[in-house]
Design goal:
Blueprint (H helix, E strand, L loop, with lengths): L1 E5 L6 H12 L2 E4 H11 L2 H12 L5 H11 L9 E4 L5 H13 L6 E6 L2 H10 E4 L7 E3 L18 E2 L6 H15 L1 H8 L3 E5 L3 H11 L2
Parallel strand pairs: 1-3, 1-4, 2-3, 4-8
Antiparallel strand pairs: 5-6, 5-7
Helix pairs in contact: 1-9, 2-3, 4-5
The structure holds adenosine monophosphate (AMP).
Length: about 210
């Protein structure tokens, strides 16, 4: 499959992307995961991105497009891909459209995950993430906790609260989403690619998405 997942932070894009990837081997491409790994590895890209990320601001479009132009040409994308957290702005969506045309890639559709704001706020404040950049398994202290001593059940690394999941950064991320990313819903409606799903359960949403795949 070749799809884009849209949705506010905390809408469940990461979880849905992982489940879809298990379904047919399409690769999950999360710009957030790529950036967090770059920060952890101390690369130049990570140094450039860290300040924006910690505040809950978007990193510049030019930097994201540099990453994605290379990433979409890696061999594992030939089987299909699920874009999670990209594009996040209209300029990114326009640049992606041009890039896909250049690479002769046709998208199946764009999924918009609709989740009520109260659910999103609760999810984000209770969310924890595995600190291992290769793993990044997502936990929730209420509904899906890590081990009793706070370790990842998959890889054993400490499970942490992300720097951008303080209340202040979360509110900023939601505001940024409304201002910069929500307009993509209209953009992809105009492209006749948008499919919206009310998404309270990731599993049910994945089953719905699968029904729409040819
Ligand atoms: P995420 O894990 O997708 O919520 O991303 C975490 C942070 O990484 C965001 O708050 C942004 O600072 C940055 N980021 C991830 N993807 C993008 C993108 N496509 N454009 C700009 N910034 C991004």
């Amino acid at each position: 499959m070749r799809i884009i997942l849209l949705g506010a932070p905390g809408a469940g894009k990461g979880t849905v992307a992982k489940l879809l990837s298990d379904h047919d081997g399409s690769v999950q491409i999360s710009t957030g995961d790529i950036l967090r790994k770059a920060v952890k590895d101390g690369t130049e890209l990570g140094a450039e991105a860290k300040g924006f990320m910690d505040r809950g601001d978007l990193v510049p479009d030019s930097l994201i497009m540099r990453i994605m132009e290379m990433r979409l040409q890696e061999p594992d994308c030939e089987k299909g891909f699920i874009l999670d957290g990209f594009p996040r702005t209209i300029p990114q969506a326009e640049a992606l459209k041009a890039l896909l045309e250049k690479l002769n890639i046709i998208l199946d559709f764009v999924v918009n995950l609709e989740v009520p704001k109260a659910v999103i706020l609760d999810r984000l404040t209770t969310r924890r993430t595995c600190s291992n950049p290769e793993c990044q398994e997502i936990y929730n202290i209420k509904s899906n906790p890590p081990t009793d001593d706070g370790k990842c059940t998959k890889c054993g690394s400490p499970v942490i609260q992300r720097d951008d999941e303080t209340e202040e950064a979360i509110l900023n991320r939601l505001e940024t989403y409304n201002e910069k990313t929500a307009p993509l819903i209209g953009f992809y409606k105009g492209e006749k690619l948008l499919k919206s799903f009310e998404s309270l359960s990731s599993m049910e949403t994945v089953n719905e998405i699968k029904k729409h795949l040819g």
